[in-house]
Amino acid sequence: MPHEKIYVVGHKSPDTDSVCSAIVYADYLKKAKRVNAVPVVAGEINPETKFILDFFKVKTPAQLDSGAGLSLVLVDHNEKSQSIDGVSDSRIIEVLDHHKVSFELGHPIVFRSEPLGSTATLVAKILRADKKFKITPQTAGLLVSAILSDTVVFKSATTTKEDKELSLLLGKRAKIKDLKKFGIEIKEKKASLKGLSADQIIKSDFKEFEAGGKKFAIGQIEVVKLDEAKSRKEELWKRMEEIRNENEFEFIALMETDIIKEGSELLVSGNPAPVEIAFGVKLANNLVYLKGMMSRKKDLLPPLMNAFGN
Ligand SMILES: [Mn+2]
Fold it and tell me: Separation of 151 CA from ligand 1 center, angstroms?
């Protein structure tokens, strides 16, 4: 295969959607487009993703520390602050995403973004639109796992009709009998905080944002019971204070999402005003429970961004 190497990469602190989308899209570029594409990860993969890769017998992509000087396809993000280090010195040739657009580049590229529950849904659409491309059971398994993971088994407000419809087709192809059961099994792999340091918990799915010239960050963990996170609250908050001071964040929120109860506890370090204004609540001991709050992107971020200017 001629031509330069192209690296397909998700965000730092990779989740299942970013890893599986990168693997499948790189495979598609290679087979269908004759592009010398390789999937890589920009950080260590989490236990949930590891379980899925093992389950479908797929090799973990190599970890890349810097994208400087390389040609990149970005999947599952488009904000530079969430990208692999060295992205400013890389050549971005394509973006596939389902998040709010915060992207600017001096030249035209392929930029595909749709308001779907996962990037994997968008990848599945691209693959299915190519009539000559055959989706293997393994590929279908990776894609449906990523959709189940990102939509929290269709419970997240980000879930669309297309996510559900494609999941049914892909699930069948991957020979998964009970999608919901498999989805919960996947989520439980990431739900345990045992053996993780406070730093690892906070950064397991950590994203930085900017509004009104100020930086803030939101981490999210998914649990099947909030007790475990509660018992480590002091330790987590102390570490959040340190991270906030080191990075001059206006505030950091850790979103502890209970996927069974369907709500999130927010632990906040720093200025509580944006959270309190956005949701009309008062924090008690830096903590507040928000019923129905499942998605950082759809439930938490928009009101927060609005409140930030006030
Ligand atoms: Mn995603």
Answer: 9
